[in-house]
Specification:
Layout lengths: L3 E5 L8 H12 L5 E5 L5 H11 L6 E4 L3 H10 L3 E5 L6 H8 L3 E6 L3 H18 L7 E8 L5 H11 L6 E3 L4 E2 L2 H9 L3 H4 L4 H16 L4
Parallel strand pairs: 1-4, 1-5, 2-3, 2-4, 5-6, 6-7, 6-8
Helix pairs in contact: 3-4
Bound molecules: adenosine-5'-triphosphate and magnesium ion (MG).
């Protein structure tokens, strides 16, 4: 069984970390052994699983890691795919998760304020690079206005023109859709909620790319 750790991280709040985490976790758990580590004090993923339980939906394994020892232990021993949902802040635990990950995914939208937030995140990555020079963040464009096309290309160009290769851009984007918000409230992934919907199509495309990038199949 493959052991992989994916950390969803950005020190900026509300960019869609938990939305990405839950959709990836539920979809990947259909063919892999998946657990989520909830590193956020708001406990979004724990709440999400609570909703699932109240509706008798299949369990999503959500584990709370309180300290670096238990986080390290899980990362080193879990047999399957660990998806770490970190909070919208910088912390030693988040940094530890990033350092020990096979992939860091950073949701980013296409506004100026988001780019400013990403510049700050880049400082954190640069500091981690001193420990592991290979570290980089895979940017996942999320919450993108459905009519914005050129902006998306501009943003991709901006991210990829970065000389020190801090960022990569994931193939596939999640646009701004009410379904992402609604599905959380129902305790479901967007694919579970509406398998033929546009959001489901977006998530399925991203999963396919991740399976290739992480050599999951
Ligand atoms: N693609 C999208 N379309 C519409 N709404 C979205 C999308 N992505 C996220 N949202 C909504 O934006 C809000 C913030 O998303 P989410 O909680 O996933 O962010 P977060 O980065 O985990 O936040 P925090 O830093 O507080 O943990 C939620 O209400 C969520 O439903
Ligand atoms: Mg969150």
């Amino acid at each position: 069984m493959e052991n992989k750790v994916i950390t969803i991280s950005h020190q900026k709040g509300g960019v869609g970390k938990s939305t990405v985490a839950l959709n990836l976790a539920i979809e990947l758990s259909k063919s892999h052994n998946v657990a989520v580590i909830d590193l956020d004090h708001q406990r979004s993923m724990t709440i999400f699983q609570g909703i699932r339980e109240s509706k008798n939906l299949p369990e999503l394994k959500v584990i709370i890691a309180e300290d670096d020892k238990s986080l390290m232990h899980l990362m080193n021993t879990y047999e399957g795919i660990l998806i770490i949902d970190s909070g919208g802040f910088d912390s030693d635990l988040n940094r530890l998760a990033m350092l020990g990950s096979d992939m860091i995914i950073t949701p980013v939208s296409n506004s100026l304020i988001e780019l400013y937030g990403l510049e700050k995140f880049k400082i954190i990555i640069s500091e981690l690079k001193e420990i592991n020079p290979k570290i980089k963040a895979h940017v996942l464009l999320n919450n993108i206005n459905p009519s914005a096309t050129t902006l998306v290309d501009d943003l991709k160009g901006f991210l990829l023109s970065d000389d020190d290769e801090t960022f990569n851009v994931i193939n596939g984007i999640m646009r701004q859709r009410a379904d992402y918000r609604k599905s959380f409230e129902l305790g479901k992934s967007v694919v579970e909620m509406d398998p033929k919907g546009k959001a489901a199509e977006e998530v399925n495309t991203i999963i396919k790319h991740l399976e290739v990038l992480l050599e999951l199949k």
